[in-house]
Amino acid sequence: CFNMIKFFDQIHKNLLNVVFPAFCNGCSKLLLKNEKIICTTCMHHLPLTHHHNLKDHEMHRAFYGIVPFEFGASLLYFRKKGIAQQLMHNLKYKNQQEIGTFLGNIFSKNVLDLPVFNSIDVIIPVPLHKKRLHERGYNQVTTFCEALEKNLAIPIIDDVLVKSINLKSQIQKSKENRLETNKNVFSIENAHIIEGKHILLVDDIFTTGATIEVCAKEILKIKNTRISIVTMAYTQS
After folding, report:
1. 7 lies in some domain
2. Same structural domain, 65 and 18
3. Are residues 126 and 36 in the same domain?
4. Angle 83-93/98-111 helices, nearest 10 degrees?
5. pLDDT at 177
6. Is 25 in the same domain as 113?
7. Structure confidence by residue, pLDDT tens digits, 45-61
8. Which of the residues 31, 49, 206, 212 has an alpha carbon 20 to 30 A from that of 174?
9. What range defines the domain where residue 162 resides?
10. Domain containing 217 — which CATH number?
11. Is the CA virtual torsion 164, 166, 171, 172 positive or negative?
């Protein structure tokens, strides 16, 4: 009986694959039966930064003397027309939220044994403005954060850091212009919740670092807080 159920379940899955075929989120090729999210080729060529194993890397240099942080890392290098760009695009604009879970699981596995993660108290995702959140229906970092929460046993807090001004895309702006524009965009509510805590600040893509810098500085205004920073991708020219 069990074997018959398993047999018909497999037939059902195969029919779904025919009617609704799954495509790789990295290269858009048809996924094979045992492939999920991305194909084996893209998995093999994921542009991993290995930041978590390096004492000095791009994020350290970007924030040196600007934002004091305990730990910083991005999972992937974001390059024009690369796998990470395609993954981020599908996650952010195509509602492929399982990509966030997929990347969060990879990152968690990489950092699980790092001592610094034993001292992190909470995860705070960089928020969307409520209007943008309503339009899109989700924050693109949510599933990534949820994977970290599950795998690293660190709770998410999403009612402390708030985006109070809805800005247009800043993709063409320099870091200086972004910093100027981002002034007063983010604020802190319920500050008592994070007093004395080590916060893991999470964003999707590190481009100039302006958004993370502004958010981190707001958090560090709260008494005895410490910051670590993680992004899914780091823009590399």
Report:
1. no
2. no
3. no
4. 130
5. 64
6. no
7. 999 999 999 999 999 99
8. 49
9. 46-235
10. 3.40.50.2020
11. negative
Per-residue pLDDT tens over the stretch 212-229: 999 999 999 999 999 999
Secondary structure element (H or E) that encloses residue 123, with its range: strand 122-125
Q: In the chain, how many domains are there? A: 2
Taking the model in full, what pTM does it have? Answer: 0.86
6 falls within a domain: no
Q: What is the mean pLDDT of the segment spanning 195-213? A: 96
The SS3 call for residue 36 is strand
List Cβ<8 Å contacts ≥24 apart for 65-68: 66/213, 67/212, 67/213, 67/216, 67/217, 67/220, 67/227, 67/229, 68/220, 68/227
Checking if the pLDDT of 230 tops 60, the result is yes
Half-sphere exposure of 38 toward its Cβ, with a 13 Å CA cutoff? 23
- Average pLDDT estimate for 184-201: 95
pLDDT bin (cut points 50, 70, 90) of residue 184 is confident
Residues 110 and 219 in one domain: yes
